Amino acid sequence: MSNVDLDLKKYLRQAVSRFxxxxxxxxxxxxxxxxxxxxxxxxxxxxxxxxxxxxxxxEVAALKFFKAIQNDPxxxxxxYNFGLSLKAQKKFEEALxxxxxxLALKSSHSGANENSDRQSSKQRSIxxxxxxxxxxxxQDPSYLAFHFYKEGLFGDAEYVYKKILEASPENDRALNDxxxxxxxxxxxxxxxTCFRKAIEANPNLDQASYNLANVxxxxxQADEAMKLYRKSIEINPDFFEAYFNLGLELEKLKxxxxxxxxxxxxxxxxxxxxxxxxQLARIFQRLGKFDLAISEYQxxxxxxxxxxxxxxxxxxFIRSQGDIEKAVELSSxxxxxxxxxxxxxxxxxxxxxxxxxxxxxxxxxxxxxIKDEFLFSALKGETPEIDPxxxxxxxxxxxxx
Length: 401
Known about the structure:
Structural class: mainly alpha
Strand content: under 5%
Number of strands: 0
Shape: flat
């Protein structure tokens, strides 16, 4: 991190702290100084825009939020605040659009696992010793390999699987599981080879066909993927994940009737699989079967209330049907769910300067409630009755962590 970044965070933290303490004049002076020093920095623009918003200068605030979005179009908070400034100007339809943009960004920012193997030589030596002990104790080393895999120790898992396959090159389970490890390490061609070898060793291993289908699907080989999904289903008629992924492939080909059949099969096997209901809702909506779409959307959010993407598209659909009150409810709920909520609870407050606060849990709960009340009030075109210092604190926790 550069000194510029460190200085920006230092002074922005000072400005936010002053604002929380109610020293509005000093906070505004800080925001002006920050903006003069960093005129193109999205966070400086964001904070200055919040100061303008809290002074009821909504048009100026909107301009600054818009500039912040131009500099960082992936920050959901900027879209949310732009929505607030539009709402304050009675531009409710435009505001809802930006709130939904914020929801879409939130849904897309899942905590991706980089799956990189960064183990030290000391850690690797532990795997070597553990494998040796398993062999000497007449234990099945596949359990050891699977343990390493589940713990994310992919290099250690690779070592053990290679040892297993040296002793038994046609071990279909080891080949399939090793393929999964290689996928986690992003070695797709080697993973494909493992899955094919597993199928050769045991043509009735449904998981190997399914895993290879997923790889070929990602590579854009739809025909091969569908063939392999069908083979998995033929081997295991209750393999609902294979039905689901086959449905996705059929959707890509706009074969909606057969895709619907696949999702219906999923629901027969596992009626609590929310993703299948969601895909049905999307297809029915596309086909103009709105009553069925609503029914499937409702089932989706009942089964998985934290399914942010489903909440977002359900709200958008309800909005198109003219039920703005229901759309507001769903949008509010969606913004507080999914990755953003996890990020707030697990990755921001717990790593921030507030970690040592004895009231951490209470403060965390208050912030979540603040966010929900702001969004719900904003979507309805009302002025949120919330202390603006709490508002600023919430939106700058992530940047200042």
